[in-house]
Amino acid sequence: MGEDIVRKTIKLDADTWNSFQEKIESKYGTTYNHTSEEVGKALYNYVNSDITNIEKNKEQIKNLEDEIKELQRENTNLTEENKDLKSSQTKISKNNQKQETEIKKHTNNINNLTKENKDLTTKLEELEKKIKDLTNSNDKLNKELSSIKELNTKIEEKYMNQVEETNKQVKENTKVKNRQEHAQERLNKTQDELNDTLKRLEKYSFAIGQIQNMSFIDRLLNRLPQQVKELQPGVENNEENKDE
Fold it and tell me: How much is the pTM?
């Protein structure tokens, strides 16, 4: 600022002036002498704002020039990279064609496999249903088998009891049969003995009749009839005693 001081009267908006005064007071604690300083600073900055902008513009221009140079270098590099990329793209395009062919093959294979998988899934579901039905049937059969086993166990117990009872009856019947056979033998033997006794009795009766008809002389001289001589009662009695 120059050393010359001028005094001017200007009109300002009251609210703007009051806000300006409050700001100065908050900064310096008082408006004394500081109001003129701040007004002067504001006027100086206003007058010299173009010079500041020019310096800023120069700096921006320099920065832009540097940025342009950097961009040009990058552009050169990108151009080279672009050439390489085009060459690579040509190769990639050829590879892409091959890959597209392979992709089509794979796609067909995938479609076929998808269809096969669908068919297999359907078959699997059918098999799972059959397995479920068989499992249910098997459960029923197991229950029936368990019932049959229980019934069979009871039947076996009854059978064993019946066998045991039958064996007892067979043994008892065998004893009874043996007793019957023995009794029958005894009866047959007794009948034979009775028949022999009756025959002997007939002979004795006949002999007694013969003896009774003998004369005194024949008895005295022991002239027994031949039938009486043939009788041997003592021997038969001894055999009967032996049999008994």
Answer: 0.27
Q: ∠ at Cα 195 (191, 197), nearest 5°?
A: 115
Looking at the chain, the whole-number percentage of residues with pLDDT higher than 90 is 1
Rounded Cα distance, 206 and 201, in Å = 8
Chain-wide mean pLDDT for the chain? 78
DSSP code string of 134-163? HHHHHHHHHHHHHHHHHHHHHHHHHHHHHH
State whether residue 103 is helix, strand or coil: helix
Token pair for 174: 């065998």
Which residues make Cβ contacts (< 8 Å) with residue 233, sequence separation at least 6?
A: 200, 204
- Lowest-confidence segment of 33-42, 65-74, 168-177, 214-223 by average pLDDT: 214-223
